[in-house]
Specification:
Blueprint (H helix, E strand, L loop, with lengths): L2 E5 L4 H10 L4 E5 L3 H11 L3 E5 L9 H9 L5 E5 L1 H5 L10 E5 L4 H12 L3 H15 L4 E5 L3 H11 L4 E5 L2 H10 L4 E5 L7 H10 L8 E5 L4 H9 L4 E4 L4 H14 L3
Parallel strand pairs: 1-2, 1-3, 3-4, 4-5, 6-7, 6-8, 8-9, 9-10
C-alpha cells in the first residue's frame, strides 16, 4: 500500500478524509507545522502529501517552501477553495502541486490521489486487500512521542514484529486511536501541552479505549518521577532509550495477558 502524509487541522473533514483513504493507503496524520512535517516526512517517507487548506490564513506557509525546496520529488495534493489556494498560487505553477476545489467528495479525492500516484483505483484496492489479508494477525502498536528521532528509533525496533502507528502529540494519538484501535500504546511521559499523564486520562475516560494497555516511556530517571509514573498504574514503563530485546519481551508479555 502507498503511504500518504495527511496534513491539516484535526476537524471532522480531516477525520472523514482520513477514514476513507485509510481503506486503501497507509495514512499518517500530521499537524500544520513545518518542523513537525519535516520530521514526519523523514519517518514516514510518503509517496504523496495531502494538505487540507481549511483555515488557510493560519497555515505555516514555510511548509510549502520546504516541500518544493527539499522534497520536490514528492507529489503534493491540496484541498481548498479558490480563495484558500490563491495564497499559495506560485507553488502550483510547477508540476509538484495540484489543488482540488472544495467542497469535494471522497471518491473525487481518491481519484485525484490515484492520478497523482500514477496508478488506477483498482490497483490501490487490490494492494490494500492483499496487505490486509496478510497482516490481520499482526498486533498494532501506537507510539506517541513529540521527538521525531525517538519515533524513528521505536518504529525501527517494532516494525518487524508489529503494525506500527505513530503520533507526535496526545491529540494526534486520540485521533489515531479513533481511526483504528491499537492493541498497545507506547506513550512518552514528557510531552509539551498535552503530556503523557493527560493523554492517559483521556484514553481512560473513553469507554472504547480505557482497556488498551499503555506503557510509559520516560527520559527522567529519578525517584520522584518514577513514583509519579507508577501512581498512574500503567501496564509498564521504560526509561528512554529502551533496550530493544527487553522492550519486545515486555510488549509480548503484556499483549499475552491482555483481555481478548
Amino acid at each position: 500500500m502507498k503511504k500518504i502524509l495527511l496534513i491539516g487541522k484535526l476537524n471532522s473533514v480531516i477525520k472523514e478524509t482520513n477514514r476513507y483513504l485509510s481503506q486503501y493507503f497507509h495514512v499518517q496524520l500530521c499537524s500544520e507545522n513545518a518542523g513537525v512535517m519535516e520530521g514526519m516526512l523523514k519517518i514516514v517517507n510518503p509517496d504523496l502529501v495531502l494538505i487540507s487548506l481549511i483555515g488557510a490564513y493560519d497555515i505555516d506557509t514555510s511548509m510549502f517552501f520546504l516541500l518544493s525546496d527539499k522534497y520536490g520529488h514528492i507529489p503534493v495534493l491540496t484541498i481548498g477553495t479558490k480563495e484558500e489556494s490563491s495564497r499559495f498560487f506560485k507553488y502550483y505553477e510547477g508540476g509538484q502541486f495540484e489543488n482540488l476545489i472544495r467542497p469535494v467528495e471522497n471518491t473525487a479525492i481518491m481519484q485525484a490521489v490515484c492520478n497523482r500516484l500514477g496508478m488506477e483505483r483498482q490497483e490501490a484496492e487490490q494492494a490494500a486487500a492483499e496487505e490486509k489479508g496478510g497482516q490481520d494477525a499482526r498486533k498494532r502498536i501506537l507510539v506517541v512521542d513529540d521527538n521525531g528521532t525517538a519515533l524513528r528509533t521505536m518504529k525501527a525496533m517494532l516494525e518487524d514484529n508489529y503494525e506500527v502507528a505513530l503520533a507526535v502529540s496526545g491529540a494526534q494519538a486520540m485521533t489515531s486511536i479513533g481511526k483504528k484501535r491499537p492493541d498497545l500504546i507506547l506513550l512518552d511521559y514528557e510531552m509539551p501541552v498535552c503530556d503523557g499523564r493527560m493523554t492517559l486520562e483521556m484514553i481512560r475516560a473513553d469507554a472504547d479505549m480505557k482497556d488498551i494497555p499503555v506503557v510509559f516511556l520516560t527520559a527522567v530517571n529519578d525517584r520522584a518521577n518514577i513514583e509519579a509514573v507508577l501512581k498512574l498504574k500503567p501496564a509498564g514503563y521504560f526509561l528512554k532509550p529502551p533496550v530493544k530485546d527487553r522492550l519486545l519481551a515486555e510488549i509480548s508479555r503484556i499483549l499475552a495477558s491482555a483481555p481478548q
